[in-house]
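C-alpha coordinates for chain A. Residues wanted.
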Protein backbone atom coordinates (compact mmCIF):
# COMPACT_ATOMS: atom_id res chain seq x y z
CA UNK A 1 0.00 0.00 0.00
CA UNK A 2 1.37 3.41 -1.00
CA UNK A 3 2.33 5.67 1.89
CA UNK A 4 1.29 8.83 0.06
CA UNK A 5 -1.96 10.40 -1.11
CA UNK A 6 -2.28 10.93 -4.87
CA UNK A 7 -3.92 13.90 -6.57
CA UNK A 8 -4.65 14.36 -10.28
CA UNK A 9 -4.58 17.95 -11.52
CA UNK A 10 -4.03 19.93 -14.71
CA UNK A 11 -2.02 22.79 -13.19
CA UNK A 12 -0.11 22.72 -9.92
CA UNK A 13 0.80 26.16 -8.57
CA UNK A 14 3.55 26.18 -5.94
CA UNK A 15 3.24 29.32 -3.82
CA UNK A 16 0.36 31.59 -2.86
CA UNK A 17 1.75 35.11 -3.02
CA UNK A 18 0.66 37.64 -5.60
CA UNK A 19 2.18 35.73 -8.53
CA UNK A 20 0.93 32.31 -7.44
CA UNK A 21 -2.61 33.45 -6.71
CA UNK A 22 -2.85 35.33 -10.01
CA UNK A 23 -1.57 32.29 -11.92
CA UNK A 24 -4.09 30.04 -10.16
CA UNK A 25 -6.94 32.48 -10.90
CA UNK A 26 -6.08 32.48 -14.60
CA UNK A 27 -5.73 28.70 -14.73
CA UNK A 28 -9.07 28.12 -13.00
CA UNK A 29 -10.76 30.71 -15.21
CA UNK A 30 -9.62 28.75 -18.29
CA UNK A 31 -11.32 25.64 -16.96
CA UNK A 32 -8.17 23.84 -15.89
CA UNK A 33 -8.28 21.70 -12.76
CA UNK A 34 -6.02 23.78 -10.52
CA UNK A 35 -4.25 22.92 -7.28
CA UNK A 36 -2.35 25.44 -5.14
CA UNK A 37 0.16 24.34 -2.51
CA UNK A 38 1.86 26.70 -0.09
CA UNK A 39 4.51 26.36 2.57
CA UNK A 40 2.64 28.57 5.03
CA UNK A 41 -1.00 29.64 5.37
CA UNK A 42 -3.24 31.39 2.87
CA UNK A 43 -2.79 35.11 3.40
CA UNK A 44 0.68 34.78 4.94
CA UNK A 45 2.64 35.23 1.71
CA UNK A 46 5.50 37.72 1.59
CA UNK A 47 3.56 39.90 -0.84
CA UNK A 48 2.03 41.54 2.23
CA UNK A 49 5.43 43.18 2.76
CA UNK A 50 4.95 45.22 -0.43
CA UNK A 51 3.94 48.18 1.68
CA UNK A 52 4.52 51.23 -0.51
CA UNK A 53 2.49 50.37 -3.57
CA UNK A 54 2.34 48.73 -7.00
CA UNK A 55 3.77 50.57 -10.00
CA UNK A 56 1.82 51.18 -13.17
CA UNK A 57 1.59 54.21 -15.47
CA UNK A 58 -2.10 54.99 -14.94
CA UNK A 59 -1.47 58.73 -15.17
CA UNK A 60 -4.17 59.44 -12.59
CA UNK A 61 -2.00 61.66 -10.40
CA UNK A 62 0.25 63.04 -13.14
CA UNK A 63 -1.08 62.73 -16.71
CA UNK A 64 2.42 63.12 -18.15
CA UNK A 65 3.19 59.52 -17.21
CA UNK A 66 3.16 56.71 -19.79
CA UNK A 67 4.32 53.12 -20.18
CA UNK A 68 7.28 54.38 -22.20
CA UNK A 69 8.49 56.53 -19.30
CA UNK A 70 7.97 53.59 -16.93
CA UNK A 71 10.00 51.40 -19.31
CA UNK A 72 12.77 54.00 -19.49
CA UNK A 73 12.89 54.34 -15.70
CA UNK A 74 13.09 50.55 -15.33
CA UNK A 75 15.94 50.15 -17.81
CA UNK A 76 17.80 53.13 -16.38
CA UNK A 77 17.44 51.87 -12.82
CA UNK A 78 18.76 48.47 -13.90
CA UNK A 79 21.88 50.01 -15.48
CA UNK A 80 20.64 48.68 -18.83
CA UNK A 81 21.38 45.11 -17.70
CA UNK A 82 17.66 44.29 -17.53
CA UNK A 83 15.92 41.92 -19.90
CA UNK A 84 14.41 44.68 -22.04
CA UNK A 85 11.50 42.55 -23.26
CA UNK A 86 10.50 41.71 -19.66
CA UNK A 87 10.69 45.40 -18.74
CA UNK A 88 8.58 46.34 -21.77
CA UNK A 89 5.86 43.78 -21.02
CA UNK A 90 5.76 44.87 -17.38
CA UNK A 91 5.45 48.57 -18.22
CA UNK A 92 2.72 47.94 -20.81
CA UNK A 93 0.62 45.52 -18.77
CA UNK A 94 0.93 47.00 -15.25
CA UNK A 95 -1.93 49.53 -15.62
CA UNK A 96 -4.37 46.82 -16.72
CA UNK A 97 -3.38 44.61 -13.79
CA UNK A 98 -4.00 47.45 -11.33
CA UNK A 99 -7.42 48.18 -12.82
CA UNK A 100 -8.15 44.46 -12.65
CA UNK A 101 -7.39 44.44 -8.93
CA UNK A 102 -9.69 47.43 -8.51
CA UNK A 103 -12.44 45.61 -10.42
CA UNK A 104 -11.99 42.60 -8.12
CA UNK A 105 -12.44 44.72 -5.02
CA UNK A 106 -9.09 46.28 -4.09
CA UNK A 107 -9.74 49.52 -2.21
CA UNK A 108 -6.97 51.89 -3.34
CA UNK A 109 -6.45 55.39 -1.97
CA UNK A 110 -8.21 57.99 -4.10
CA UNK A 111 -7.62 61.37 -5.69
CA UNK A 112 -10.14 64.16 -5.13
CA UNK A 113 -11.75 63.12 -8.41
CA UNK A 114 -12.18 59.53 -7.24
CA UNK A 115 -9.38 58.06 -9.34
CA UNK A 116 -6.65 55.74 -8.02
CA UNK A 117 -4.13 57.89 -6.14
CA UNK A 118 -0.47 57.29 -7.03
CA UNK A 119 2.57 58.21 -4.96
CA UNK A 120 6.21 58.91 -5.72
CA UNK A 121 8.83 56.20 -5.35
CA UNK A 122 12.54 55.74 -5.89
CA UNK A 123 13.62 55.63 -9.52
CA UNK A 124 10.22 56.71 -10.89
CA UNK A 125 9.99 59.98 -12.82
CA UNK A 126 6.32 60.52 -11.93
CA UNK A 127 4.06 59.40 -9.06
CA UNK A 128 3.29 55.87 -10.23
CA UNK A 129 2.52 53.64 -7.26
CA UNK A 130 -1.10 52.77 -6.60
CA UNK A 131 -1.38 52.22 -2.87
CA UNK A 132 -3.52 51.60 0.18
CA UNK A 133 -1.72 53.71 2.78
CA UNK A 134 1.42 51.66 3.45
CA UNK A 135 -0.46 48.34 3.48
CA UNK A 136 -0.73 47.78 -0.27
CA UNK A 137 0.56 44.20 -0.37
CA UNK A 138 -1.94 43.17 2.28
CA UNK A 139 -4.78 44.57 0.19
CA UNK A 140 -3.47 42.83 -2.93
CA UNK A 141 -3.34 39.45 -1.19
CA UNK A 142 -6.80 39.98 0.34
CA UNK A 143 -8.23 40.76 -3.07
CA UNK A 144 -6.55 37.90 -4.93
CA UNK A 145 -7.30 35.22 -2.36
CA UNK A 146 -10.92 36.36 -2.13
CA UNK A 147 -11.13 35.98 -5.90
CA UNK A 148 -9.51 32.53 -5.86
CA UNK A 149 -11.53 30.97 -3.05
CA UNK A 150 -14.69 31.59 -5.07
CA UNK A 151 -13.26 29.62 -8.00
CA UNK A 152 -12.94 25.84 -8.49
CA UNK A 153 -9.37 25.47 -7.22
CA UNK A 154 -7.98 23.13 -4.57
CA UNK A 155 -5.91 24.81 -1.85
CA UNK A 156 -3.36 22.96 0.28
CA UNK A 157 -1.86 24.96 3.14
CA UNK A 158 1.31 24.18 5.12
CA UNK A 159 2.39 21.90 2.29
CA UNK A 160 6.04 21.86 1.21
CA UNK A 161 7.26 20.57 -2.17
CA UNK A 162 10.35 18.36 -1.88
CA UNK A 163 10.81 17.07 -5.44
CA UNK A 164 9.64 17.58 -9.01
CA UNK A 165 9.20 14.57 -11.29
CA UNK A 166 9.80 14.39 -15.04
CA UNK A 167 8.66 12.13 -17.82
CA UNK A 168 11.12 12.49 -20.62
CA UNK A 169 11.98 16.18 -20.94
CA UNK A 170 8.78 17.48 -19.31
CA UNK A 171 7.64 17.80 -15.70
CA UNK A 172 4.79 15.52 -14.72
CA UNK A 173 4.35 15.89 -10.96
CA UNK A 174 5.58 16.85 -7.50
CA UNK A 175 6.03 15.20 -4.12
CA UNK A 176 5.01 17.22 -1.06
CA UNK A 177 4.56 16.77 2.67
CA UNK A 178 2.24 18.49 5.12
CA UNK A 179 3.64 20.21 8.19
CA UNK A 180 0.65 19.55 10.43
CA UNK A 181 0.22 15.79 9.86
CA UNK A 182 3.47 14.78 8.19
CA UNK A 183 1.59 13.20 5.29
CA UNK A 184 3.12 12.78 1.84
CA UNK A 185 1.08 13.93 -1.16
CA UNK A 186 1.89 13.15 -4.78
CA UNK A 187 0.50 15.55 -7.40
CA UNK A 188 0.34 14.32 -10.98
CA UNK A 189 0.20 17.50 -13.07
CA UNK A 190 0.30 18.48 -16.72
CA UNK A 191 1.96 21.80 -15.87
CA UNK A 192 3.65 23.23 -12.80
CA UNK A 193 3.98 26.92 -11.96
CA UNK A 194 6.72 27.83 -9.47
CA UNK A 195 5.84 31.04 -7.58
CA UNK A 196 7.77 30.61 -4.34
CA UNK A 197 9.40 34.03 -4.03
CA UNK A 198 13.03 34.70 -3.22
CA UNK A 199 15.86 33.54 -0.98
CA UNK A 200 16.49 36.50 1.31
CA UNK A 201 16.96 34.26 4.35
CA UNK A 202 20.40 33.51 2.98
CA UNK A 203 21.35 36.89 4.48
CA UNK A 204 21.69 37.68 8.18
CA UNK A 205 20.01 41.09 7.91
CA UNK A 206 16.91 40.82 5.73
CA UNK A 207 13.31 41.91 5.36
CA UNK A 208 12.37 38.37 4.37
CA UNK A 209 10.35 35.97 6.52
CA UNK A 210 11.34 32.45 7.60
CA UNK A 211 9.99 30.75 4.47
CA UNK A 212 12.03 32.71 1.90
CA UNK A 213 14.66 30.02 1.44
CA UNK A 214 14.87 29.63 -2.34
CA UNK A 215 12.86 26.40 -2.52
CA UNK A 216 11.49 27.11 -5.99
CA UNK A 217 14.86 27.94 -7.49
CA UNK A 218 16.35 24.76 -6.01
CA UNK A 219 13.49 22.58 -7.25
CA UNK A 220 13.75 24.02 -10.75
CA UNK A 221 17.53 23.61 -10.86
CA UNK A 222 17.29 19.97 -9.76
CA UNK A 223 14.70 19.39 -12.50
CA UNK A 224 17.17 20.69 -15.08
CA UNK A 225 15.95 24.27 -15.51
CA UNK A 226 18.36 27.14 -16.06
CA UNK A 227 18.84 29.89 -13.49
CA UNK A 228 19.68 33.42 -14.59
CA UNK A 229 21.28 36.46 -12.91
CA UNK A 230 21.14 34.71 -9.55
CA UNK A 231 24.04 36.85 -8.29
CA UNK A 232 21.95 40.02 -8.43
CA UNK A 233 20.21 40.75 -5.13
CA UNK A 234 18.49 43.99 -4.18
CA UNK A 235 19.25 45.63 -0.85
CA UNK A 236 16.50 47.93 0.34
CA UNK A 237 18.14 51.08 1.75
CA UNK A 238 15.74 51.45 4.67
CA UNK A 239 15.35 48.68 7.20
CA UNK A 240 15.11 49.07 10.99
CA UNK A 241 18.46 48.88 12.79
CA UNK A 242 17.20 49.10 16.38
CA UNK A 243 16.17 47.28 18.53
CA UNK A 244 18.50 44.49 17.47
CA UNK A 245 15.63 41.97 17.64
CA UNK A 246 13.94 43.61 14.63
CA UNK A 247 17.08 44.59 12.69
CA UNK A 248 16.34 44.41 8.98
CA UNK A 249 12.56 44.82 9.25
CA UNK A 250 11.32 46.84 6.28
CA UNK A 251 10.78 50.59 6.48
CA UNK A 252 8.76 51.27 3.37
CA UNK A 253 10.07 53.46 0.58
CA UNK A 254 6.79 55.33 0.88
CA UNK A 255 8.37 57.30 3.73
CA UNK A 256 10.78 58.86 1.23
CA UNK A 257 8.07 58.98 -1.44
CA UNK A 258 6.04 61.14 0.93
CA UNK A 259 8.96 63.52 1.52
CA UNK A 260 11.16 61.82 4.14
CA UNK A 261 14.81 62.93 4.13
CA UNK A 262 18.05 61.12 5.02
CA UNK A 263 20.53 62.67 7.45
CA UNK A 264 23.81 61.57 9.02
CA UNK A 265 24.88 62.12 12.63
CA UNK A 266 25.96 65.68 11.77
CA UNK A 267 22.46 66.52 10.58
CA UNK A 268 23.64 66.74 6.96
CA UNK A 269 21.33 65.72 4.14
CA UNK A 270 24.15 63.68 2.63
CA UNK A 271 22.33 62.16 -0.34
CA UNK A 272 23.09 65.24 -2.48
CA UNK A 273 26.72 64.06 -2.52
CA UNK A 274 25.86 60.70 -4.11
CA UNK A 275 23.81 61.57 -7.20
CA UNK A 276 25.19 59.61 -10.20
CA UNK A 277 25.89 61.57 -13.35
CA UNK A 278 23.11 59.70 -15.21
CA UNK A 279 20.49 60.98 -12.75
CA UNK A 280 21.60 64.60 -12.24
CA UNK A 281 19.13 66.01 -14.76
CA UNK A 282 16.25 64.16 -13.06
CA UNK A 283 16.83 65.16 -9.44
CA UNK A 284 16.84 68.27 -7.29
CA UNK A 285 20.35 69.65 -6.84
CA UNK A 286 19.64 71.89 -3.83
CA UNK A 287 17.74 71.68 -0.54
CA UNK A 288 15.54 74.56 -1.69
CA UNK A 289 14.43 72.74 -4.84
CA UNK A 290 13.79 69.53 -2.88
CA UNK A 291 11.70 71.41 -0.31
CA UNK A 292 9.67 73.01 -3.08
CA UNK A 293 8.92 69.55 -4.48
CA UNK A 294 7.59 68.43 -1.09
CA UNK A 295 5.41 71.57 -0.83
CA UNK A 296 3.88 70.88 -4.23
CA UNK A 297 3.26 67.20 -3.46
CA UNK A 298 1.72 68.01 -0.07
CA UNK A 299 -0.56 70.54 -1.77
CA UNK A 300 -1.66 67.85 -4.22
CA UNK A 301 -0.20 69.73 -7.17
CA UNK A 302 1.60 68.40 -10.23
CA UNK A 303 5.29 68.79 -9.35
CA UNK A 304 7.03 71.38 -11.52
CA UNK A 305 10.47 70.95 -9.97
CA UNK A 306 12.76 67.93 -9.87
CA UNK A 307 12.19 65.24 -7.24
CA UNK A 308 14.49 64.88 -4.18
CA UNK A 309 17.61 62.65 -4.43
CA UNK A 310 16.15 60.43 -1.67
CA UNK A 311 14.11 59.03 -4.56
CA UNK A 312 17.15 57.62 -6.32
CA UNK A 313 17.11 53.90 -7.07
CA UNK A 314 17.53 51.55 -4.11
CA UNK A 315 21.05 50.40 -4.96
CA UNK A 316 22.36 53.98 -5.08
CA UNK A 317 20.71 55.00 -1.79
CA UNK A 318 21.84 51.81 -0.03
CA UNK A 319 25.48 52.37 -1.07
CA UNK A 320 25.30 56.01 0.02
CA UNK A 321 24.10 54.97 3.49
CA UNK A 322 26.82 52.34 3.75
CA UNK A 323 29.49 54.90 2.80
CA UNK A 324 28.23 57.36 5.43
CA UNK A 325 28.33 54.68 8.13
CA UNK A 326 31.81 53.51 7.07
CA UNK A 327 33.02 57.13 7.21
CA UNK A 328 31.91 57.42 10.85
CA UNK A 329 28.88 59.58 10.14
CA UNK A 330 26.28 56.97 11.02
CA UNK A 331 23.62 56.85 13.73
CA UNK A 332 24.30 55.35 17.20
CA UNK A 333 23.23 51.85 16.12
CA UNK A 334 25.01 51.64 12.77
CA UNK A 335 22.56 53.26 10.37
CA UNK A 336 21.51 56.79 9.44
CA UNK A 337 18.44 58.89 10.20
CA UNK A 338 15.25 59.01 8.13
CA UNK A 339 13.18 62.07 9.00
CA UNK A 340 9.55 62.45 8.00
CA UNK A 341 8.52 64.41 11.12
CA UNK A 342 9.84 67.75 9.85
CA UNK A 343 8.40 67.24 6.36
CA UNK A 344 4.78 66.25 6.98
CA UNK A 345 2.20 66.89 9.69
CA UNK A 346 1.42 64.27 12.32
CA UNK A 347 -2.03 63.81 10.80
CA UNK A 348 -0.60 63.23 7.31
CA UNK A 349 1.93 60.72 8.62
CA UNK A 350 -0.65 58.71 10.56
CA UNK A 351 -3.00 58.71 7.57
CA UNK A 352 -0.45 57.96 4.85
CA UNK A 353 1.94 55.73 6.82
CA UNK A 354 -0.19 53.98 9.46
CA UNK A 355 1.85 50.77 9.51
CA UNK A 356 5.13 52.64 9.94
CA UNK A 357 3.70 54.72 12.77
CA UNK A 358 2.52 51.60 14.60
CA UNK A 359 5.67 49.63 13.80
CA UNK A 360 8.02 52.15 15.40
CA UNK A 361 5.73 52.89 18.33
CA UNK A 362 5.36 49.21 19.22
CA UNK A 363 8.83 47.90 18.38
CA UNK A 364 11.13 50.86 19.05
CA UNK A 365 9.04 53.07 21.36
CA UNK A 366 9.58 55.90 18.88
CA UNK A 367 7.01 58.37 17.56
CA UNK A 368 7.90 59.02 13.92
CA UNK A 369 5.67 62.11 13.91
CA UNK A 370 8.15 63.68 16.35
CA UNK A 371 11.52 61.91 15.93
CA UNK A 372 13.63 60.55 13.05
CA UNK A 373 13.92 56.80 12.48
CA UNK A 374 17.23 54.92 12.50
CA UNK A 375 17.50 52.89 9.29
CA UNK A 376 20.07 50.97 7.26
CA UNK A 377 20.31 48.65 4.22
CA UNK A 378 18.68 45.23 4.41
CA UNK A 379 18.52 42.30 1.95
CA UNK A 380 15.16 42.52 0.24
CA UNK A 381 14.55 41.07 -3.22
CA UNK A 382 15.96 38.36 -5.51
CA UNK A 383 16.60 40.00 -8.88
CA UNK A 384 17.53 36.82 -10.71
CA UNK A 385 15.94 33.39 -10.60
CA UNK A 386 14.48 30.72 -12.87
CA UNK A 387 15.09 31.66 -16.50
CA UNK A 388 11.77 31.92 -18.36
CA UNK A 389 10.58 32.93 -21.80
CA UNK A 390 9.20 36.51 -21.62
CA UNK A 391 6.08 35.59 -23.60
CA UNK A 392 5.12 32.25 -22.04
CA UNK A 393 6.91 32.31 -18.66
CA UNK A 394 7.96 28.70 -19.29
CA UNK A 395 11.40 27.66 -18.09
CA UNK A 396 13.91 25.64 -20.10
CA UNK A 397 12.07 22.49 -18.94
CA UNK A 398 8.84 21.69 -20.76
CA UNK A 399 5.74 22.23 -18.65
CA UNK A 400 7.61 24.02 -15.87
CA UNK A 401 6.71 27.70 -15.52
CA UNK A 402 7.83 30.39 -13.08
CA UNK A 403 6.27 33.69 -12.03
CA UNK A 404 7.02 36.50 -9.63
CA UNK A 405 10.21 36.96 -7.63
CA UNK A 406 11.49 33.42 -8.23
CA UNK A 407 11.60 34.03 -12.00
CA UNK A 408 14.08 35.98 -14.10
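Reply:
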Amino acid sequence: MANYITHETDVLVVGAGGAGLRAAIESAAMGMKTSVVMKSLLGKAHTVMAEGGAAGALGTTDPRDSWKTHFRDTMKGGKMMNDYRMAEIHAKEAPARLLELEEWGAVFDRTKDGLILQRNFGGHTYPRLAHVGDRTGLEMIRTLQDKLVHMPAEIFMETTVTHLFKEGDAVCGALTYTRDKGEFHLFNAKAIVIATGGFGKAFKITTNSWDYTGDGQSLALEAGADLKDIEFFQFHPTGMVWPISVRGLLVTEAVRGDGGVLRNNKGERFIFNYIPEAFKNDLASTEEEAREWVKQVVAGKQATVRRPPELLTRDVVARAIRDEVNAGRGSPHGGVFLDIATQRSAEEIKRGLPSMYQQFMKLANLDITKEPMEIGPTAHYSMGGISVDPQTEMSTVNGLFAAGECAA
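The domain at 235-380 is CATH 3.90.700.10 (Flavocytochrome C3; Chain A, domain 1). The chain has two domains: 5-234+381-406, 235-380.
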